[in-house]
Sequence to fold (210 residues):
Amino acid sequence: MKRVSVLFCALLFAQPAAAQSVTGCDKDQALAVERVLRNAKELTLKAATSVGDTPEYERWFGEYSRGNAEEVRANLKAIVGAIRSGAVTASCNLPTQDGCDSGEYAWVYPHEPYLLHLCPPFFDLPHLTALEPGARHSDNGTQEGTIVHELSHFLRVAGTDDHCYSRGDCSQMAVRDVARAIDNADSYQYFTEDVTYYARQPVVGKTSTD
Fold:
C-alpha cells in the first residue's frame, strides 16, 4: 500500500494560527489546504494534552515512561507550533513530478521547513472527522493525519523517520522497539487520529454496554 514518502513551545490556547501560503494549487486545493491545516492544528493540540499512561499511548509509543511521554508531548507541541507560525507552505505537485510519481500522498525534505509537497492523491484522502472507527479505508490515513505525519519529519519539529507504514506494523513495532516508535512519523499520525476522533466515536453496529 502506498503511504506517505519522505525524501531524505508551549501550547498557546488563545493564539490564532497565522496565515499559511500555497503554491501551484488551484482555488479548491488552496481552500482545502487552509481547512486541513486549521483542523490539524486543533487535533494535534488535543493529542498533546492526551499524552499519558493510556492504551492509545502504549499502542503507538510502547511502554509508558514519564521521560518518553514528555518527548512525545514536546514533539506534538512542535507540530502545533509549526502550524501556528504561519510559515507552512503547501506546494501542490503534479503526479509526474519527483516525489509524486509513484502514487504518494505527500513528501518533504526534512531540512526545508515548512515546505509540504502535496501530491494529487492527498486531496482524495478523507477528512479525519468523516471517518468512523473500523472504516475499511481508515488505514490509508486522513488529510489531517498526513499533515501531522509530514510536519513531524522536519528537523526543526521532531526529525522523525519512516520505520513503518501501517497500523498493524506500527503497533507491533511499539512493542518491540520503543525508541523507533517515538522516532516514527506514522506513530504520531495514528496517535493523533485515535485520541482525537476514533476513540471518541462508537463503532457502527456495536451495542453499547452502558
